């Protein structure tokens, strides 16, 4: 339904988006991830037609999006990170105003959207008096009033408290059952909960494009083994652990303090693939006369994958 083909956008000498290509199928929820300044918002604005690419093309249903593509823009509902709402208007009046601008004549439309977005209790309040969570809901209602086939949300939970985040996520999940959705965020847990697929962008370029369930399996092949010992010196612990099969790196860390005032020696072992160095760690402790206090395996999380891919990891 959406095809982004070799799209770039330059601001003077600065290339904000660099040869980005990806597609979104009808009914799919795609997370567009990246650190601040990665090019996510610029990419979304080009998809919506707010910005024209310096090069490349965005097509919707096989037709190229341009600044004059009003019929294509009607297919899209867009909520920017800071929705431009009129704070002095009542919520009901604001939604009626938006409906009038969009030529929506159905009087049942506004109550219906208010119910979908959970706004019934605040329709009589000024937009400026609402909490940030409710203002996000108003912005979402604005983007949904004309029944768009495509919904594009830029950082929809930014600045919300934990309860508001859960409410807005549930709302997006419900809306996403009947629409094609692109969500821009840098919150990995949000992606796991909401998105079918993840596109990660860093420094204006795509570094990963994968179904959410496959992302960790595809990129996070390493795990970490945390070890704490007593009776050994860190200067001897690090080289001994580094020689174990399957250990690619050893990083010393602060060990736990014991009741007698001493402190355990602690190391974190980077483990490659399916290797399991735990039997070797146990044998090392036994043969060296050390006391093993802890061995804890931690599989790499999506946060680890994100950090690796956006701080100089291999591109895909």
Give a brief outline of the structure.
This protein has 316 residues and is an alpha/beta fold. The chain folds into 2 domains: 2-218, Rossmann fold, CATH 3.40.50; 223-299, Alpha-Beta Plaits (2-Layer Sandwich), CATH 3.30.70. The protein has helices at residues 40-48, 70-73, 91-101, 109-116, 132-144, 162-175, 188-194, 212-219, 234-242, 278-288, 302-309; strands at residues 2-11, 14-24, 29-33, 55-60, 63-64, 76-79, 150-154, 180-185, 197-202, 205-211, 223-230, 247-253, 265-271, 291-299.
Write the topology of this structure.
Elements: E1 2-11, E2 14-24, E3 29-33, H1 40-48, E4 55-60, E5 63-64, H2 70-73, E6 76-79, H3 91-101, H4 109-116, H5 132-144, E7 150-154, H6 162-175, E8 180-185, H7 188-194, E9 197-202, E10 205-211, H8 212-219, E11 223-230, H9 234-242, E12 247-253, E13 265-271, H10 278-288, E14 291-299, H11 302-309
Parallel strand pairs: 3-8, 3-9, 6-7, 7-8
Antiparallel strand pairs: 1-2, 1-4, 4-5, 9-10, 11-13, 11-14, 12-13
Helix pairs in contact: 5-6
Q: What does this protein structure show overall?
A:
With 316 residues, the protein is α/β, with parallel strands linked by helices. It has 2 domains: 2-218, Rossmann fold, CATH 3.40.50; 223-299, Alpha-Beta Plaits, CATH 3.30.70. It has 11 helices and 14 strands. The strands form 3 sheets. It has a 6-stranded mixed sheet, sandwiched between helices. Strand 4 and strand 5 form a beta hairpin. Helix 5 (132-144) packs parallel to helix 6 (162-175). The longest helix is centred in the middle third of the chain and has 14 residues, at 162-175. It is elongated, with a radius of gyration of 25 Å. It starts with a strand and ends in a 7-residue tail after the last helix. The mean pLDDT is 88.
